[in-house]
Specification:
The chain is mainly α. It has two domains: 35 residues; 74 residues, no CATH class. Helix content is 81%, strand content 0%. It contains five helices and no strands.
Length: 118
């Protein structure tokens, strides 16, 4: 009888441990998601490009995206700040190319808002 009761305990403990692990993973993901990020400072050129990218994403314009991508390829980030804005715009263009227009547009909007609030 004691063996039978110990077997009955294993699934409960296993389930409890799994549920606790899942809960901790979800909490950790939530913390990372809401963790404050430092805003990227856009220079004048990057700012104008972000505005154009916002318009392109809002209109879901494939030709406009291709044209902006050609212009973006000509940029050469020199300083660390330029490199951060370059990476941000590159990631936003990649989202738009993948069809995630709304996400790309939201990223543009957030970047533009960050310039006003700094």
């Amino acid at each position: 009888m004691t063996m039978r009761s110990s077997k009955a305990q294993k699934p409960f403990n296993f389930t409890f441990v799994c549920m606790t692990g899942i809960l901790l993973a979800v909490l950790a993901g939530g913390v990372l998601w809401w963790w404050p990020r430092s805003p990227v400072v856009l220079d004048d050129n990057s700012y104008q490009m972000t505005i154009a990218l916002y318009r392109i994403c809002n209109q879901k314009s494939e030709p406009g995206l291709k044209q902006l991508e050609r212009q973006f390829a000509e940029l050469d980030p020199l300083s660390q700040a330029d490199q951060a804005s370059y990476q941000l715009i590159a990631a936003t263009i990649a989202d738009a190319k993948a069809g995630r227009w709304v996400q790309a547009m939201q990223q543009c909007r957030q970047s533009l808002d960050d310039q006003v609030s700094r």
